[in-house]
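seq:
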Amino acid sequence: MDDKLKTRFNISVTVILFLIGLNWFFQLPISLYPTISKPSIQLSFYYDQDVHSFYQEWGNKIERSLRDMDGATEVDGTYKNGQVKYVIQFDWYIKPEIAKKEAARFGAMYQAQLPKHLPSYKVAYYDPTSESYLAIKANKYEVDQLAKILQQTLEPQLKAIKGVSRTMIAGGSTEMVNIQINPFALIENNVKLQDVLSALRQYRYDEAVGVLESSSEGKVNIRLTQGISNLADIRAVPITANPGKPLLLAEVAEIQLIKEQGNRLFQYDDISVVVIGVWPEPDANQYWLAKQVKEVIEVTAGPLGDVFSLNDPQEFVDAAILNIVVSLFVGMFSAAFVVLVVYRRFSTSLLIVITMPITLSISIIAMQVLGVGINILSLGAMGISIGMVVDNAIVIIDRITHSQNKALTSEKEIIEAVRSVKPSLISSTLTSIIVFLPLVFSAPMISAILRDMALVIVSILCVSLFISLYFLPAIFLAFAKKRHFSPKKPSVRFEQVMSQFLSNKTLKTWVLVLVIFYILYVLMRIPTLIEREVIAQPKAEIVDIFMPFTASGLSNSDKLAALAPIKSALRDELGQHIKYIYSDIRDEYAYLTVHLVSYRNFDAFYGSLKHVLSAFGEDVTYSPWITGALKIEDHPDLTLYFNHDNEHINRDLLKKSYQWVKDRPSTYRSDVTPRLFKNNELELNLRNNLVDRLLVGQNYNSEIADLTEYLKFTASPFTLYKIKLDEGFFPLKVSISNNKSSVEAILQTPVQFAGKNVFLQDVTTLSAVETAKEFASRDGRAMFRLKIWFDKAVQVDNQKFIAALESMLKTEFDQDVLPMRVENSKTEVEQSLQSLKTTLVFSILMVFIIVLYQFGTMRSALMICTAILFGITGAIHAIYLFDSTLSLNSMLGMLILVGLTVNNSILLLDFFNRNSAQGMVTVLAVIGALRNRFRSLIVTNLTTIVAMLPLAIGYGAGKEILKPLGISITVGLFIATTLTIVVLPILMSFMAPKVSTVFSETRQSNNKVC
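struct:
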């Protein structure tokens, strides 16, 4: 193939790839972060026992079984009255759907062993930050009517959207089949409560009874239906089968279809609303799913009421990614401006600049093949790579124009000029790839978070090399080959200054000593002063306030009255920061979710919140809530565990510690498990003397069990199961009716006990007690835990902080040794950072081997790798100067600087070797290398600095995510470039390395060109 055909072929291939990549860009999945392959599954069971008795009989066993599942690493159980929720953490790279199936399998196994009348277990993915959450204010209907309409019309549409895991539509009251048993009728007809319940359970609608195995159809599931379709059928359920007329349910109970006050009430700024929640599958395209959900809701629910967005992942992703895209384009235009200013030739600048969009577009093809989507890290990688793309283009253009500075050249000479610089360009690109590629295969957390960024950078580097070596020369040959470039006169002043400096051995020595001292100080001292974290999270625009209700059984109006003072205080004192307040009011507690006007208001609002809420008691807590947060645990600075054998002592220690920690000025946030709030309850106790006398000759255990169940149904309606009627699908609730206007009235409920007709007050007494609402356990062991996050603006000595806490506790509890264990909460963070350090060391070693192979001398390899220290030193100093954190993204900046500084050194030493090969004196060879490489070096690094400056400054939603990365690269590269320009020429003048054999093949052509 002749040169003209090659030129046309290279241009055509590049244009085709550019168009394909541009088209595929709009097909890539969009999210805020890369998908984290570490699933969490929530498994819920329901029970009708006391919390502790259920834990002893079932909970402990269930937790240990779940912990033994393949891939399970941790099981946390939270037990409340009637319900337990297990959150099962799985190991890295376990497929979410497999984890869910395993949890469901164990759930089904234990559900089969629990009493059949209990509601079925629930299993779901646990990710509390990715759901689409909307509120609808009814315009045409009451809230409960609107909720029912949406459940019938909207919910099926939402469930049909690809990627939806589960949905919720709730609000207002709910309808139920209410069966109120008349206790006097039971006694009159000599019927026990157990007879009524047994009859109802026999008529449970649609119950699985087994599997039929046939020779023709195989295994077929069988379900039993009893034919109940309306209230009349329920009223006709026979209670007894006595000869003659059977006793029907209607004769001992009143059966009605009634509306029940919902156990959750939702308000948007004091207006009752219906809430819609949609949770995605872990691997779903969350951006497009959230968009589809909004569209379906607007079409179906929009005409019925006003729609308010409470949590919209699409909106946050849009804002965060828009900021990165803006930063990317600002970087590209800034790079173009820098190139134009330095080169002062529009045509040359245009050739360099067009490589950026072409390279980025073609890299989209690699992203599609590698399964990398559009997210804040992959887009950040594009911004980071701009300088590297420009650098490769500058090297090629400089080499070609340098050839043409002497005379008009032929196509063959231009190709030869490109070929001469090809080894060093491949070497510099290969070293950068070696730096980033190990990230893909590093520790699971590192790989999961940074994999996309590493793959994008590697892809862009490879595409950039192709564009520089094949497309740019082709364009140059096609459009610019006839142009004459007048030679540039070297700066005499520059040569004089550099010559004097490099000839002064004392001055060079002092400069080296000062640089070495600076590097040692930064590397040994500053890292101990920098805060560590996994990855920076964006500032929250939402703050959750948690308030427990001290009394049980409050009406909705009572709950609203209890919340009103807090809402009023928030609006009076912090109203300028508040957009609206969303209330999620439940049986025992409420969440006030405060949505801020902007993330910019967060610091002022959160800093004042402690003072505002201090007037409402210690049980009112608060924490930031981040939409679309990275699914990595927000590790606290300290974690305390209390492990006394006595639960009450552990709770007291936890409570005192929490109160003390919460009041410290250095405390940013604190969290307790289990929650410490309590219920004020009435406890029924048997009158043992009377009961023992009545039960003489009776089955003691059976009678006591019957009485206990009778008391349960007297206290409140109890759901037996759900039943399908013509009117719909309803819970069926049973209670023993009586005048319940007071406790005394409840105690006057009649009961048949041991063959005698008595009142409850005859066999029981009442006493007021306080009981804990929650009980927590981890892997089958009771857990009492306090997590503490410190304010990053305050320097806290952990040991002194713990010592002060222990001193307070010893005074309160009069104990020399506290049953308290302090856990290093940053273990995973430190392990991840250590893994990244290992990756960094491995990358440096691989770079050294490649450079040693390419240049052939130890001195050359050492000189080149010395620049790595400059990059790491600059990054660490930058992080410290701008009060950033040592995290995965800031350490990634160090890796990037390794690649950039090595590239600078390789190309600088390459020119030095070429000059030395021509017999130049060492000082002149160094000056010549600087003169030839200085412009491209400054343009390249200035381009990278300008491109990363928007990330370093940070603006918009999600700015904190990549800010540490921007700081470490921007400031670190400036420091590293300065040190490289000053120190590397000194080392070259001292060491005078021998000419590398890798360039021997091109020396003859170099002698002509250079």
